[in-house]
Amino acid sequence: xxxxxxxxxxxxxxxxxxxxxxxxxxxxxxxxxxxxxxxxxxxxxxxxxxxxxxxxxxxxxxxxxxxxxxxxxxxxxxxxxxxxxxxxxxxxxxxxxxxxx
Length: 101
Hints:
Layout: E1 16-23, E2 43-51, E3 63-66, E4 71-75, E5 78-84, E6 90-92
Antiparallel strand pairs: 1-2, 1-5, 2-3, 3-6, 4-5
């Protein structure tokens, strides 16, 4: 992945999207999760930066809040996740969310 110059210009499978992830920031002592939540990724949200040709209802720049799984990639110090668009359960337009750091 490091050889790719611009991830927004990649060609994806027809039903997939690529999300640039924002990780949750923790302060203080972090204890390992137990139970159902332990297998989930610890991200605040993802921004759609590329999508396959058959993806409808989700646009470049949309904010994805919830989706199961996906393949995680590291690219130039950031985390990206590739996921099937039909697996996304909550997504909003950028003007419909308050993002705080």
